[in-house]
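Here comes an entry:

___
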Amino acid sequence: MLIMTASVRGTERRTSIGANLAVACLIALACAGCSQEARNVGPTVPQTRPRDGADPRIALYQANVDQVAQGGRYFAWYGCQACHGESATGVRNLADGQWRHGGDFDQVFASIADRHGALRYAVRVPPEQLWQLTAYARDLPLHTPEKLHRQAVDQRAEPVGNSWSGPQ
């Protein structure tokens, strides 16, 4: 084994070449880790409606509890529960899982965005909120009475439909 002798501030120090090589490798690895990171700089929220029922963005909303819950907040904020909530009857009740215009994500999205006559949700509601509303509407048939009660308790202080006067 080769031993090198170095003088550091007047003191003699002995190190092996292997130790020096290990330190050099660690420095090289540390410098390599400082290279430019690859980042996704595109928008994180959808700017367009779903392309079809197999759009890969659907899973980011339908399978995400937080996105579905946010859709539930908008469901109350926009007053949707008046016609489509648990107490609604007939084809307007979304909790029964029967869809007049199809139950695929893109079909429910189109129903919310385009089929509300003068309300024109596609123009008035941002695309991400439409995605969240769609995820929530499709999730409604899975809601148990306990879940609906918990949601009602959570949303008690939230603005609801026409009673909301805007930010305070």
